[in-house]
Amino acid sequence: MTKLYRNAAIAEAIGPELLLDQSVLVDDRKIVWMGPDDDTPEAAAKAVVVDAGGATIVPGMVDAHSHIVLPGGSHWIDRIDDPTDDLLQVAEENGELAHRAGTAWFRDVGSPPRDGKALALRVRDAWEGRTDRPYVRAAGAWISKVGVLPSTIDVEARDADELVAAVEQQLDDGADLIKLYLDGPDPDTAPWTAGEVERAVQAAAKRGVTVTAHATRLEGARSGVLGGVDCIEHGSVLDADLAAEMVKRGTFLVPTLGVMASWETFAATTTMERFAGAAGKAALAARNTAAFESVGLARRAGVRIAAGTDFGGGSLRANQMAWEIECLVSAGLEPWEALGAATVTGGELLREPGAGKLQIGGPADFFLVHGNPLDDPSALWRVWKIA
Ligand SMILES: [Zn+2]
């Protein structure tokens, strides 16, 4: 079917400027033309017209840090042990929620192994070709040093040889990327040296796959960056030297600030000591301040920042990308830069040239909102429709 989305604004997050009086012609789920209303080609005469007056077309978002088989909420950690069928059902709900909220891509960065294989890989394969679900690139299982995470939810290694073997196993299972867990049992020591991380990165690179690293502490992040991972997840504590090194190497940062913003809401909506108790609130406030400062520092240094909710592996829900974008703005990104983090930069991180962009000849992965998200991220909560 041919559809003409007529008289919309377009928010491509490559600058602060909103384009007005624009039309987009879609045929067979591809963008075949886009431009000013007045230039609409003859070919559009037979198209079904969608009067998009007053709405803004936004490229489908890339949730660069997601856990598609997990539900989020204040009990997110408990849910990792739920039965396999329940988690598969959760994935379906997440896929639908995110699709309807404007997310076109999931970068899944860890799921529990079930029946010998990370569960998100199964979901990725099941969604192949579905137009009502985001595209999925999935990391397989978390790979961590023995003794850090409960052994039922991750794949563990005792030494660098086992680390490389764990990477090979995830690749054999079909992982699109590799996720290392670089928080260790001792907060001030990285679980693996940069040299050990580098062995894992090289093993993956031989098969054309990148490695990313969970690191909420400085030493783990440093090991990851110096070891050659392509991205630091969370990066809650960075310093100027490390940010400069990330710029030099082109290492991405996916901050997931929304997790802490959501924990702050749990102080009011739960009675859990961790969130509502005085000590819990003070610890959270300190962590929050450090994480927002790290993002500000990274942004000023010029680190490439992509947006991810951490839904499921953290407490956000699958349809809350807007929340993360609002947090990135609070941390110092211009609203259009924050939308860029959620679209074009996420696509670069995935190495998917069409992701997060509107291009003639590219897929019609866009959604329509009310308001100008290049100026006001809350517009992204006001989704009208998905193309
Ligand atoms: Zn996560």
Summed up:
The chain has 387 residues and is an alpha/beta fold. The protein is built from 12 helices and 19 strands.
Q: What would you give as the CATH superfamily of the largest domain?
A: Metal-dependent hydrolases
Any guess at the CATH architecture of the largest domain? Answer: Alpha-Beta Barrel
Largest beta sheet, briefly? 7 strands, mixed
Listed once per kind, the bound small molecules are: zinc ion
Give the radius of gyration: 21 Å
- CATH class of the largest domain, please? Alpha Beta
Our count of domains comes out at: 2
Quick one: overall form? globular
Structural class: alpha/beta
User: Approximately how much helix is present in the residues?
Assistant: 25-40%
Low-pLDDT segments: none
Give the terminus-to-terminus CA distance: 12 Å
- Beta-strand level of the residues, as a percent range? 15-25%
Number of H/I helices:
12
User: What is the average of the pLDDT values?
Assistant: 96
Would you report the number of β strands?
Answer: 19
Q: Within the CATH hierarchy, at the fold level, what is the topology of the largest domain?
A: TIM Barrel
